[in-house]
Amino acid sequence: MKVKDRFYRTLWPEYDRGAVAIIDQTVLPHQLVVRELETVAAAADAIVTMRARGAPLIGVTAAYGVALAMTQDDSDQALEAAVALLSHTRPTAVNLAWALARMQKVLAKLPPNERCEAAWREAAAMADEDVATNQAIGRHGLGLLREKQRATGRPLRILTHCNAGWLATIDWGTALAPIFLAHDAGIPLHVWVDETRPRNQGLLTAWELAGHGVPHTVIADNAGGLLMQRGEVDLVLVGADRVSRAGDVCNKIGTYLKALAARANEVPFYAALPSSTIDWRIADALKEIPIEERSGEEMKSLNARLEDGRIARVQIMGPETEVANPAFDLTPAALVTGIITERGISAPRELASLYPEWA
After folding, report:
1. pLDDT given for residue 52 in this prediction
2. What is the per-residue pLDDT across 259-274, written as a single tens digit (0 to 9) for each?
3. pLDDT at 48 over 90
4. Which residues contact 151 (CB under 8 A, 6 or more apart)?
5. Catalytic residue among 194, 234, 241, 279
6. How confident is the model over 57-74, as a mean pLDDT?
């Protein structure tokens, strides 16, 4: 996607330096900062600290982390250690395990002296596939948004939660890809953007939409229900970090509440995601999908631009306050109208119809 006069991906290899460059998402939307990752430990840290975030991007970052490890040591022990380190960075997004399993399958069968080149090649292929996948999600979602807008006869009003745009992927995004394409196609629309506390990923969504010229308004997380009651939301569109075979959607904390409000007000609720986010092994999502518990410090402070222009971490509550910080919640398939993937749109419990190889 384009930022001012330059096109960016969220991550790209710096082959001449044996490094990987990423956009540091912890300082957005105040600053655009590019950082280099030179070791597998640095890649793991970028995932843990959410400098690289979003399920698809986490997966590709981990793949490049393995490539960085193979650059320094291409032994069996180094491969196993890299996969083990990266697999423990974040537990909920299944794209992480999917990417690491793919890298390990490709590399384990090769002699050590061939692993470095193969690792960089495979990671690059995964990045390019992610872009193509998200464009396909966008095309399928575009048809849905066009149909919904024609039915309303006015600008389509979409509510989002978290950030499922190009920053959460390599490019284009999942839930935002249809919105970008619809805007480019001249379909009138307006996006209600949840702040998405405590990490405020909604501000990243707003930054992306502003850069693309898409009309939008940031709202407090708890305002969505009222807007639905007033008839000011035509459709809820979110991403996902893990989806069960049955179509249960695990996404950023607060998504479940939006789904409940949407059902109560007869507002369609859609999730957009690549097939790498579907965990076909999961039978009971509520019991089997691990919910990441993050540090309470994320709730106690936030990044802010001070009056003198400096960016600082600002405390918003006292150190004596106890905080619980679950990062995700689960939306049962019964509350989901449809799931948009690179192969099309299906009812949640009919996902396997798009993927007969998993039926």
Report:
1. 98
2. 999 999 999 999 999 9
3. yes
4. none
5. 241
6. 98
- CATH entry 3.40.50.10470 includes domain 140-358: yes
Give 152-180 pLDDT, tens digit per residue. 999 999 999 999 999 999 999 999 999 99
Which of the four CATH numbers 3.30.1360.30, 1.20.120.420, 3.40.718.10, 3.30.230.10 does domain 2-129 have?
A: 1.20.120.420
Could you tell me the two tokens for 100? 């690491």
Which residue from 261, 256, 317, 263 is spatially nearest to 291, judged by alpha carbons? 256
Is 234 a residue of the active site?
A: no
CA-to-CA separations, 56 to 134, 240, 273, in angstroms, rounded = 10, 10, 9
Its pTM stands at: 0.96
Q: Which ranges in the chain are annotated with CATH 1.20.120.420?
A: 2-129
